[in-house]
Amino acid sequence: MNDQLLVATRKGLFILHHHRDGRWQTAETHFLGEPVSMALVDPRDDTLYAALNLGHFGVKLWRRRAGAAEWEPCAVPVYPPQPDPLPEPLPDHPPAAPWSLQQIWALEPGGSDQPGVLWAGTIPGGLFRSDDGGDSWTLNRPLWDRPERTEWFGGGYDAPGIHSICVDPRDSRHLTLAVSCGGVWQSHDDGASWDCTSAGMEADYMPPERREDPNIQDPHRMVQCAGTPETLWVQHHNGIFRSSDGGAQWQRLFAQPSSFGFAVAVHPLEPDTAWFVPAVKDVCRVPVDARFVVTRTQDGGASFEPLDDGLPSPPAYDLVYRHGLAVDATGLRLAMGSTTGGLWLTEDGGEHWQCLSAHLPPIYCVRFG
Amino acid sequence: MPHITFAAAIQRHIVCPEREVVAPTVGAALEAVFALQPELRGYLLDDQGQLRRHMAIFVDGHAIRDRQRLGDHVAPGSRIYVVQALSGG
Question: InterPro entries given for it (chain B) (predicted)?
Fold first, then answer.
């Protein structure tokens, strides 16, 4: 079990600890008042990372080494000089976003055989790599320079962004990314080359001719089963998709009360077990009938069951954003944080939930570590 | 010499005292400060060296016009104010 929970919010980072008597308590508060877009505990050395998105002063990244009392500033990813002027968009292409960091939207450690390696997914769509624990960053040009990138467009933000990065536990050189809105991309050579692997996804929000275009799909969140890495789950703008062949082909699945949402978590050992937090649909992002539930499948998406024991009674309008649902290494303990500041935890795979707080700032990300 | 002042909101993150700088333009004035405090650059300028979207700089009471290259002229007695724009929340 992971007994530390990071909660990154609109107004600070909260760290909760699990006590022997079963209680979870907020043990630490950091960056109070500042938007924390992403947080990470590096499992290789227990270093904490917090990415801030200061409204006026840009993106910052802070690090706290294991055992250290103080945070220290890291370098942030910096885009290289952009063409001047930026090229005019081609027909059917969105306007080019400035080559300037807007948000760290994903932060993942490299493999256990890659000490110091970090991957950062950003808005406006660049993937950055650090080889020194955040002291320096390099833009992955093979992906950034792909001509297809200029067709990506923003989903929820003005510019596109990489929000999900899966490092294959069998091979650290194999990376799988999800982009809103640019589909799923994979590299098998440590980022030297990339392929778009969104076949089977559908985008009902696009004109009919473009709905199956792999490069304009909007996966809201993608997760990979640690024990069976060829199984990937995506909560897409248009519903739920699953791949059991490493992303070569995706199957659309249908859940009740809704297939729309942002978050997904997959059991680390059981590839057919995954959790979602549904909302009505894209034009009405609240729980169906104001009944806040988690849906779980244990059969690969053939069926879904709503779980709500311990969750608020209707009416409840909590929405869980893409990084607001996390599962620990056992697959039994999950945490969930909402955009209205509710934080819940389950110790039994979602059968029962306990409310840890109903009054936090809007929650962007929960993460065990 | 031009005099440069930073708003209190910036001081929350980086203490940056008022300074006298020798500089003919806003950009040169900022570079003079960055030479003393390099960590301040990323708080004021974006990746392309432009003034951040939700920042503002006033020279003798007038908002600068060149937010990209920061070429607005400053006179020896100018007073430069670096402030946050309320558009940033």
Answer: Beta-grasp_dom_sf (IPR012675), Mopterin_synth/thiamin_S_b (IPR016155), Sulfur_Carrier/Prot_Modifier (IPR052045), ThiS/MoaD-like (IPR003749)
pTM: 0.96
Contacts of A135 in chain B (CB under 8 A): none
- What DSSP string runs through A120-172? EEEETS-EEEESSTTS--EE-HHHHT-GGGGG---SSSSS-EEEEEEE-TT-T
Give the list of residues 6+ apart from residue A194 with CB closer than 8 angstroms, or none: A142, A143, A146, A185, A186, A187
Task: List pLDDT tens digits, range A39-92.
Answer: 999 999 999 999 999 989 999 999 999 999 999 999 999 999 999 888 888 888
Q: Give A36: exposed, middle or buried? Use CB within 10 Å, 0-12, 13-18, 19+.
A: buried
Contacts A76 to B, Cβ<8 Å: 42
Verify whether the Cβ–Cβ distance A82 to B48 is below 8 Å.
yes
Q: Which residues partner with A41 through β-bridges?
A: A48
- What range defines the domain where residue B39 resides? 3-88
ipTM confidence score: 0.90
Give the total number of structural domains in chain B: 1
CA distances from A334 to A10, A79, B80 (A): 21, 35, 52
Q: How do residues B27-48 score in pLDDT, each as one tens digit?
A: 999 999 999 999 999 999 999 9
Q: How many CB pairs under 8 A join A and B?
A: 45
Q: Which residues of B touch A81 (CB under 8 A)?
A: 48
Is A73 within 8 Å of B42 when comparing Cβ atoms? no
Read off φ and ψ for residue B21, nearest 5 degrees: -130, 155
